[in-house]
């Protein structure tokens, strides 16, 4: 029997999400094709994730390397692109590189250098983004905005790493203008990075910003990649 004989809830939610993202793009006067969707799959069992990939989700993000490693083999036949979107501990770099196509959460040079060296050792390239803490909230990972350009330029110059853009988590605030200002800051940093003309910056066009609760704001500020979990999978079980 085919694996998918009728549309399951995850497929319906994914279709609704794609509409929502496209509406946000059109409302901002942008081409909906400019905004891709990455599903944040933390805590979701692999059969549910598989269902989403079968429904067309081709970009997945995991926060924890353990979860990435646990789910990736069961998805390998569908070949989704797997991203690391959470803090990557240096002792997990080798494991992460076994499965990840992109690490979005690079926020210090030590980690970037370690990734670069390991990529050289295993003879592969890796897409990376620099994560910026635009909200300044102490609980959030990411390099401070004032230090972001310097870090991004250093990362871009490392062998085997391809800097593809910047990532952020929006401010946890109901004040839409405050959230928007953070996203605009990330866009300004990306524009400065690309305009620098420095080695390795030409491809750094991605703005990974916007989640279930703030994707309209992020798309209005230029997001090229929204990372969505709950809007597709429902609420995560509490830890
Ligand atoms: C969980 C998570 C998301 C998705 O958040 P939702 O609110 O569930 O859409 C996006 N980015 C990161 C880094 C996350 O950890």
Describe the fold and architecture.
With 239 residues, this protein is of the alpha/beta class. It has a single domain, classed as TIM Barrel (Alpha-Beta Barrel). It has helices spanning 9-27, 46-54, 65-75, 93-99, 109-122, 145-156, 176-196, 215-220, 230-233; strands at residues 36-40, 59-62, 81-84, 102-106, 126-131, 161-167, 206-208, 225-228. An eight-stranded parallel sheet has the order 7-6-5-4-3-2-1-8. Strand 2 (59-62), helix 3 (65-75) and strand 3 (81-84) form a beta-alpha-beta unit. The radius of gyration is 17 Å and the shape is globular. The relative contact order is 0.14. Residues 40, 42, 63, 85-86, 169, 211-213, 227-231 line the site of pyridoxal-5'-phosphate (PLP). The site of pyridoxal-5'-phosphate has 14 residues, from strand 8 and helix 9.
**CATH T-level fold name:** TIM Barrel
State the shape.
globular
From the N-terminal CA to the C-terminal CA, the straight-line distance is 36 Å
Number of helices in the DSSP assignment? 9
CATH architecture: Alpha-Beta Barrel
Helix-strand string? HEHEHEHEHEHEHEHEH
Determine the fraction of residues in helical runs and give it as a percent range: 40-55%
Judged by helices, strands and strand pairing, the structural class is alpha/beta
Cofactors and ligands: pyridoxal-5'-phosphate
- Describe the strand arrangement of the main beta sheet, using strand numbers: 7-6-5-4-3-2-1-8
Largest pleated sheet? 8 strands, parallel
Instruction: Indicate the low-confidence ranges by residue numbers.
Output: none
For the residues shown, what is the average pLDDT? 95
> Strand tally, please?
8
